[in-house]
Amino acid sequence: MPLFITAIVSLYLTTCGAATIVTANTREAVSLISFDRKAINYRSCADKHTGTIGWSDVSALLLDEGCNVAHSAIPNSGLTSCADADGLDVFVVKFRHQNKAVIAEDLALSDRETIHLSEFDPWEQADGPLRALESIARQKICRGQPLKADTLPSAFCHEQRQVAVAFDYNHPFDNKILTNGFSFAVTVDGTVPAGFDMDEFVVQVRSGFQFGISAWVTGLADHDEILTPAARTFIAARTSKSSGGYKLILPPQVIALKCPENATFRVALVFKDRRLFPNYPLALARARIEGRTIALNVGDIPCFRTELRFDDHRQPVFETKEGCVNLIPVLTHELGHAFGLQHANDPAAHSMMDSTLSHDALAPTVSDLKHLVAALSESIEGAAPGKLEFVSSAGVMPPVDWKPHVVQIAQ
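RE: above sequence
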């Protein structure tokens, strides 16, 4: 696995669009199921069988031809091909009604009929509707050629690409929600009040999300005795050891994106929605159980912030020094729901997954970790990002002794 990679997501797959797969000797009309930079998954129009073909065997993919074999010519990128080892493998993406092709390093197709691209110049990732594409071809080109992209169609959202250490969207467990990297986009439900600093809030959410993932992963690393072979392999792959006996655990990294279609998670900032957050009882957040959507009650909570600080019992603090709710325990709890954990509410012992947070269980307990290990062994696809039907969770409430402070701080 390369140390640095750029993220593109290819999840939640169903049959998407019609196309013709062109090889050196054949043309086959298909319905697309999914594709990524390695292969195309399809269903044949002729006999309805499903199959997979590597891009190395494909000359071109001609889009929107129905179940009729297309006989149009393979598009020309205008770039010089290089067959030697120094050649650069690229995807030549031709949009409808545009003359110049976009040269992409990476691509993927999701079941929302959304194509995801990683461009060379500008160094961006973009996503938009599959229907905007005319064709895709695979080509090995000579290095040093100008790869400046044509203007993308207006329906495409694009932003600067990001890199992270040991980052990809592969899932090491049958539970496909826990991946080797996480990305999220913030969406808004309601009216953003004057003075709300959205950019700073995204920074706070990213930090809280990262520390929440870290809490679960380091908890697993600290309790080898409860791990399954798959979980033990996952932890071992993310552990570095020094000659002096020190260990470094690298949890999956978290990046913040602006284009929601590029992200594997949505974090919804809910300013007023009494269906999601009634007046009573006061809930801090909700999450789709077995899903990829988290909602924060920013309408009723004075402020959220991320602060990595611990009390005398080595528990994360619930309230920051500014008097804000600490996002770390909140997002740790909601990520537990996302992975498939229900509320615990064991009267004999407090838990990170209790419906009401407790000051002595603001990090995953051994019981929480056992439930996570069990959930990771289950075959869970999980709801796609943006699904706001929180029918399975009533939300997490603050500790019973917490009283919100009025703080002079703009979120």
